[in-house]
Amino acid sequence: MPESTGGSDFRISLKLLWGTKERAPRGPKPTLTIEQIVEVAVALADAEGIENVSMRRVAERLGVGAMSLYRYVPSKAELLDLMLDSIHAEPPGIPAPPESESWRPRLAWHARESRALIQRHPWMLQVRMGQRPPLGPNILAVFNAYLGTVKDIGLTPAETLAVTELVGNYVQGATRRDVEAAQTERESGVSDETWWDERQEFWEQYFDVERFPHITLMWEQGGYDEPIDQFEFGLQRVLDGIEAMLAGR
Question: Is Transcription a UniProt keyword of this protein (predicted)?
Fold first, then answer.
């Protein structure tokens, strides 16, 4: 079931995201920090899925009572905002291409880094944001960097926004497929290779080569022998489309 970010009062999230890191709760001197709470929540989501993240579970991992967390973060909705913004501050896996490079390798780098972020934190795909992301500094910094890559390549402002949305949507869709495949393999304990091997009798007893000639042709011509990296193939085609649009002007 998708999770939603943002509580009933968006100002609370904004204060937590942009205000002083140490929110001053009433009562005794604070024994926790926002960073500690968020770090534990992210680790829990990575290990068990976002559906298993609750204020109680986070409190247990921190060794405190659940009610004590509410002095720092009012609800899970605000905690999700903080978690999402926090992971967008993670350092890149590979260095970014220099600014002197053309837009294409730099935009491809952003796409690959976005994919890697989702792969590290697949629960991101379970959080329902749409056009309403948490307005945190790290999320905005990533978006700003995306825009900076394509802002001066001959696009209108609206097209610049549309191109970043196009690439982002492609990354999410393509990565979701891989994340779900990995989850299926993990939960079933059966690899894709084993799954297909176990269904060999389907090809021998049920598959009709005359009824499905195109599938048969791909098989006979070795189409399945050396599969292409589907993410990279699709990403390059997206970039080809952008490049073709620019070349046509």
Answer: yes
Cα-to-chain-centroid distance, residue 149: 20
What SS3 class is residue 209? Answer: coil
Radius of gyration over every alpha carbon of the chain, rounded to an integer in angstroms: 23
Whole-angstrom distance, CA of residue 244 vs CA of residue 230 = 21
* Portion of the chain with pLDDT greater than 70, in percent: 92
Domain that holds residue 133: 103-248
Looking at the fold, whether 189 and 216 belong to one and the same domain comes out as yes
Which pLDDT value is given to residue 226?
85
What pTM does this model have? 0.87
Phi, psi of 25 (to 5 degrees): -75, 155
- Packing angle, helices 10-18 and 76-87, rounded to 10: 40
DSSP per residue, 131-195 = T-----HHHHHHHHHHHHHHTTSS--HHHHHHHHHHHHHHHHHHHHHHHHHHHHHHHH---HHHH
73 with 113, same domain: the answer is no
Mean residue pLDDT of the chain comes to 90
H helix or E strand, kind and range, residue 201: helix 200-205
How far apart are alpha carbons 218 and 205 in whole angstroms?
19
Cα 75 from Cα 67, distance rounded (Å): 11
Tell me what pLDDT residue 248 has. Answer: 85
Same domain, 57 and 179: no
Which residues, including other chains, have CB under 8 Å from residue 133's CB and lie 6 or more apart?
5, 84, 139
